[in-house]
Amino acid sequence: MKEIMSQIPNEIQSVLKQFRRWIRRYILMEGVAVFVAVAATMFWVTFLVDVAYFWFSRLELPTSFRLICLIVMVGGLVGLGVSWVVFRLFKHFQLKDLALALERRFPQLRDQLITTVEFEHEATSPLTSQMVEQTSREAAEKISKLPLEETFDRTPLKRIALIATVLFSTLAVFGVANAAGVQRWVHAYILTKDNYWDPYRQQALALKVLSQPGERVREFDENRTYKHPRGADLQLLVESDDAAIAPEDVTIQYISFEGNATERGRANMNRFGDGEFRHSFSRVVNDYRLWIRGGDFVNRTPYRIQIVDPPQVDAITLMCDYPSYTGMDVMEDKPVSVVGTQVSLPMETEFELQGRCNKPLRAVDLRSSRFQFSFGYRLVDGDEVPKPTTFTLRNEENQILRTVEVDASPESLLSEDRSGFQIPFVISSKAEQQWEELGDRIELPIPIPPDSALKIFLEDNDEIYSPEPASLLVNGIVDEPPVVDTKRTGVGSLITRNASIPVEGQLSDDYGVASAWFGFKVGSNMEEQTLPLNQLPSGQKEFTLNDAADKDVERFNLRPLKLQEGETLTLAIYAQDADDFNGPHVAHGEIFSFKVVTDEELQARLFDREVNLRLRFEQIRSEAGDLRDLLAEQQTNLAENVQVEESILSAFVERSLHQLRKNQTESRSIEVSFQSLREEMVNNGIDTKDKLDRIDNGVIAPLGVLNETLFVEADQRYALQRLSLQRGAGFDEALRETVPAVDALIEQMDRILEEMQDRGTMNDLIQTIQRLRDEQLRLKKLTEEKRIEENFFFDFEE
């Protein structure tokens, strides 16, 4: 090339070099202008796209999109620079191309310039060389006069330069006027930051949760997740940052997930004060994704509501240590499962309240109307730290009286896997008194009063409280005094001084009767005396009174007391339980009052009763005779073939049967009364063998035959009459068979009445003797009084 250039005239070489420089300068200026214009255009396009996207979504452009834009911009600008500047600027320009370009622009060169360039280096004949030389001189002369600046069309360069200048100027002005916008663009597209809009937002909102109970403000974790108890109401709280402008309204958008289906929705949050908004979802059972919008704020990643089961008590059991006096030691190894919400325990029972839960726990809070027992762990800088175990006392107005620490750690009260707890208590009637005597600390077991309604609140590792507390009512079974159910038998209110008073009955106690005795008073003596029973209880829950001689009664003998006629005796049986905590408790049965009389007076009283019984029996005999007369009348009618209506016969049978049964009931009562008379005679020591034989064989035994056999036979015969009437046949035969049964009944009654009358004659004699004796004693007393009176006046006259 240098060789060729050396053969071309200097004037032409100079022009071509200058032309080549001008071309390269044009290319450089045009490339720079295009580069600037394209770069500025890319800035404005991407800037406006970012602004438009934020305007509609309030979010930053996706990072992937911005990375693509960055790659496209860098690639486009590099490609543009290489293709429009580098490749064109450093392109090798041939002299022939430069000459050709000039020839096209300036036709007056008449191909002399291109001919000079093409043939100068070729070996030719002298003639040709001379001609080329001549052409070169002419070309040099012409080219030196040409206006080379007109070779270029500057209009496209001016246009692109103008566009580049305008775009660059707007960018420069915008960069000065809104440097924050340019900086945001740099953060978005060059540095590809995620939150590049944050410094430029006017609103800044934070979503929180008002957790129950107590509307505790809970924040989402670092993953924007909040665990919510299943079925509980979800109350959301949006707070505006103090350094930001509070929006006028806030909208919450959500997606609810139910199985494979989803539900989308939005709601306007309610404004509470300045910069605070709330919204509630009722009974949330599905997971949620949440976005909040207010002003120019919206969260990029959704808040997540994850539904979990709340902590709850699945089962409650009690391990009890019963008081020894209850006799329930054999049951202490058997846990008491609480069915329902109530359990009853004997007073002074120590028990360990064991609860099994559905998930691991962090803390347990047990409350009643009078106290609160709390233990567990708390979070400190993300680590669990045991919190003090406390026992808080409250008054009836729920005001805190005092709080003391409990000598127990959470490790000892929570199970190893924390899915359960065990709390020692003792149910005591003296619990409140023990509370008043508390110092700064209290030891387990915790005393609680009877009928304590406990509510158990749980907190799990997700800081979720149980929405509803587990309830347990612990009733204290108060050890009541023993029940003494007694009655006297075989004696009345009048007794002899040799009497043996039988008392029958039963002693009972919830946990066993420890001891029992007779308590009695004589006359007006206020001091009560005691005598042990013949057979003593030994811890039985039910004890029947008995002694060695008589298995059905316990006897109180008056003979050792040596009572006198006219004195009174008050008697009762006492029983005591074995309660050594709140007892022992003592109770007594019915209080019996007696008056001591002579044997003769008691016999007279018994005879009066016997006379009344005989009169009653005579009435029964009379009514039985009436039944026999009615039977005879019906027999006469049958013998004379008198027609009697069936209704009249039926009424006759029914009245007779009713009368017969009434008489049988009264006869049984008389038999029982005579047995009672016999027992009083025996128990008062006024019986003899003859007396007992006469009353046993003459009255009681015949009455037994009468009531158990003869009345039954007669009743059956009348029943056969009724049956024959119902069947419509056989009444005559049934009537005839009834007559012998009624006759046998009357004959037995007559024999009994005869014996009663004989006894009456003897008793009358006894009463007569008693009256004579009483009269003799009266006269003797009057004589003695007269003698004293006469002696008194005789002494006075002297």
Spatial strand order of the main sheet = 14-24-23-16-17-18-19-21
The residue-averaged pLDDT reads 83
What sort of overall outline do the alpha carbons produce when their principal axes are compared? elongated
Could you name the ranges where pLDDT drops below 50 across 5 or more consecutive residues? 1-6, 792-798
Count the DSSP helices.
14
What summary fits the major beta sheet?
Answer: 8 strands, mixed
Q: What value does the Rg take, in angstroms?
A: 64 Å
Content of β-strand = 25-35%
- Residues in helix, %: 40-55%
Structural class: alpha+beta
Count of distinct strands? 34
The number of domains: 5
Alpha-carbon distance between the two ends: 204 Å
Transmembrane segments: 26-45, 65-87, 160-180
Keywords: Membrane, Transmembrane, Transmembrane helix
Describe the overall structure.
There is one protein chain. With 798 residues, the chain is of the alpha+beta class. It folds into five domains: 189 residues, no CATH class; 108 residues, Coagulation Factor XIII, subunit A, domain 1 (Coagulation Factor XIII, Chain A, domain 1, Distorted Sandwich), CATH 2.70.50; 164 residues, no CATH class; 115 residues, Immunoglobulin-like (Sandwich), CATH 2.60.40.2060; 183 residues, Four Helix Bundle (Hemerythrin (Met), subunit A) (Up-down Bundle), CATH 1.20.120. The chain is 44% helix and 26% strand. It has 14 helices and 34 strands. An eight-stranded mixed sheet has the order 14-24-23-16-17-18-19-21. Strands 3, 5, 6, 9, 10 and 11 form a six-stranded mixed sheet that branches. Strands 26, 28, 29, 32, 33 and 34 form a six-stranded mixed sheet that branches. α2 crosses α6, α5 packs across α6 and α13 packs antiparallel against α14. The longest helix is centred in the last third of the chain and has 67 residues. The protein is elongated and about 195 Å long.
